[in-house]
Structure prediction request, 172 residues.
Amino acid sequence: MLSNDNIRLRALEPEDLDIIYEWENDMSEWDRGDTLAPYSRYSLKQHIAKAGQFIYKQNQLSLMIEQLGTMRRLGMIDLSNIEAHHRKAAIGILIHKTYRRQGIAAQAIELMTQYAFNVLLLHQVYGHIAVDNQASLRLFKRCGYEIAGTLRDWIARPGGYVSVQIVQRLNH
Prediction:
């Protein structure tokens, strides 16, 4: 369920600390998410330790995207804001710059979405994508997500605000 012929999604391990620290503290990526300050090794170490706890207790599932064969870490994918009652969760993904535009993100999104639908029995998975992140919008559309709406002036950036589009995929 969490792998295909090319990649697998696996639990975070303590050995992932250094690469997660590097990725999460790359300021060039912060405008794509909600990060406003660097993460400490201590806080990331705690996150990794909690990642193995019951999903509904944490309301989050973070997985490493790993290339089969080489076991190279390519990125991370998350389900967050998991709501058991409403059966929905937000999805987020980070692919290291070196491995972008190789189809890895689409594979990881599909694996995570199928896990959300078939194992967690969620009704929907959604994401918030800045309108100027056209590559990500195209990616999610290719993965069967539809634009469900726009939140105007949702993200503050230097020089002004950016709207986001809500992408959503329902479990039919």
